[in-house]
Amino acid sequence: MGNKLRGQITTEFDGEKINLTLSTNAICELEAVVDQQIHVFLERFEEVDTVRMKDLRLIFWALMLEERPKATLKDAGRLIDGLRGDHQRIMTDAIVAAFPEEDGDGGDRTDGDAGADAPGK
Question: What is the pTM of this model?
Answer without folding.
Answer: 0.76
